[in-house]
Amino acid sequence: MEGRRKIPKLLIAVLLIAFFAFQICASASDAIYYESFEEPFDGRWIVSQKDEYQGVWKHSKSEGHDDYGLLVSEKARKYAIVKELDHVVNLKDGTVVLQFEVRLQDGLECGGAYLKYLRPQEAGWIAKEFDNDSPYSIMFGPDKCGSTNKVHFILKHKNPNSGEYVEHHLKYPPSVPSDKLSHVYTAILRPDNEISILIDGEEKKKANFLSAEDFEPPLVPAKTIPDPNDKKPEDWDERDKIPDPDAVKPDDWDEDAPMEIEDEEAVKPEGWLDDEPEEIDDPDASKPEDWDDEEDGEWEPPKIDNPKCEAAPGCGEWKRPTKRNPAYKGKWHAPRIDNPNYKGIWKPQEIPNPDYFELEKPDFEPIAAIGIEIWTMQDGILFDNILIAGDEKVAESYRLTTWKPKFEAEKEKQKAEEAAAGQSEGLSGFKKKVFDLLYKIVDIPLLEAYKPKIIDLIEKGEQQPDITIGVIVSVVLIILTVFFRLLFGGKKAAVNTETNRVPPAEPSDNQGTSVENEDEDEKEEDAAAAPPRRRILIMFQASHALMVTLLITFGLCMHRVCFVKTVSSKTAKISCN
User: Fold this and answer.
1) DSSP letter string over 175-197?
2) Contact in structure between 323 and 263 (CB atoms under 8 Å)
3) Which of 41, 69, 150, 429 could crosslink 173 through cysteines, CB 3.0-4.6 Å?
């Protein structure tokens, strides 16, 4: 009986083991490709033999770890290396996850740290000649230099009508982390045409491949385009205002009157020394012994301020000060009135776009190789744990097992180094959160035009922590500028697409103007106003960014004032580091 009872238990145990083994194998099968660089890359990765790529790749440990990676070992070099995959990866079926780690051990001022996912070699390239022109399907990863600071995602997509491959750039991509820690970058391509960009497992950007709002240029071209052969008629008048031809300069308008005149009511101050010069020869100066009058000319003592003038209201000839002339009007110009011949801002007629096509899903090109082709001014860039997977959970498990422990250890080491350097852990940690928030604010789409300027300010603040508040104030001013332009920015009336005409403006009551006012009247914005709903959304984003930045500023100020260090059991000291 006992023997019979043991058989079912044994079977259950075997079945459970088999089930878990199947689950592990199933998960492993979702790792389409994985490179840990634990083994030397020689023989597996091919270094480009092109002359321009002089940078030396090394199989090296990450600083402070026993974990190996692929290292950029020299500054100011071009690098190119490629790994051909055993099987071509199809991006059209199901979810595909692209993931890799990068550690900028010496920072990154100017250079790239991105990967290129290459098309099959039938597209016209060979591994030993891998270069910038080798055709890729996707380019993904950090890039930073000058005004550029972004995590690229570029899709090369074929136009079925023209046959041309076009680079489509993700709009408003996230910024590159500014520290020297290990970071993991993830791009998730989903079958519903959505893409998510993650940094360290946190979603930083979500977009749709078919949305014109998310990619530049859009994957789906516009249905119509401006007619390149349409020309503006010679009699087309775009001036909405013109000088009033019936206006006459007033008789009392004196164009020759000076802007300033002498103040006849001014009186010379009492004690003014008319006969004393403002400067006198220095009585203590003497001609140098080696001075030669014939070669050096006649020696003259240097001048000093007249000491008698210090106690007096002034020295030398007194002159009446000037004041603004109340009769000054400047050059007269006729007042501007509505132009009766105004037709609006001319635009060419729209015609059907010959390159237009409809698209339900992106026509992804398959991936046959992974390449790194970069130019960088920094060394110490370490690539590691390159993964292609068919499941988001698989990518997450790799992040937790390969990246997370290293990142946590590096963060602890960084805190210890800051403490050893005498920095306040509370204050430095607070400032780190401030800068992290600022980097999130700068990714708001409405600040795209100002992004390089803001990032430059943030980086200066990180290098010089004492100017943190000044940096935040500068960001606040930029956001205020955007906000007020949205509120009060001028706009031109829309042109009728059929007639190319703009409705005339209301008549003006202006009677005359000086040259200064006329110049101001001529300064108008050319861009059309955004649609009302989008305008409200942008204003909301601006308000939100402004409020967050102001709260950060207030919090930082309070932190600087109220951060207390205990000096002894009876005394305390306020720290404003």
Assistant:
1) PPP-SSSEEEEEEEE-TTSEEEE
2) yes
3) 150
pLDDT of 253 above 50: yes
What is the rounded CA–CA span in Å between residue 156 and residue 137?
A: 5
Angle between helices 532-562 and 425-441 (to 10 degrees): 170
Residues 75, 377: contact at Cβ < 8 Å? Answer: yes
Please give the model's pTM, rounded to 2 decimal places.
0.64
Cα–Cα distance for residue pair 114/110, rounded to 1 Å: 13
- pLDDT at site 549: 61
Condensed to tens digits (0 to 9), the pLDDT of residues 525-575 reads 443 444 555 555 555 566 666 665 665 555 555 544 444 333 333 333 333
Q: Note the pLDDT of residue 562.
A: 40
Distance CA 254, CA 449 (A): 46
Spatial distance between the Cα atoms of 157 and 172, rounded to a whole number of angstroms = 19
Cis-peptide, bond into residue 302, ω within 30° of zero: no
Measured distance CA(453)–CA(450) in Å, rounded = 5
Q: Which residue has the tokens 């079925």?
A: 160
3-state secondary structure 70-81: EEECCCCEEEEE
| Token pair recorded at residue 469 | 């508040």
d(CA 473, CA 84): 50
Is 90 exceeded by the pLDDT of residue 390? Answer: yes
**Which pLDDT score is estimated for 380?**
94
Helix (H, G, I), strand (E, B) or coil at 506: coil
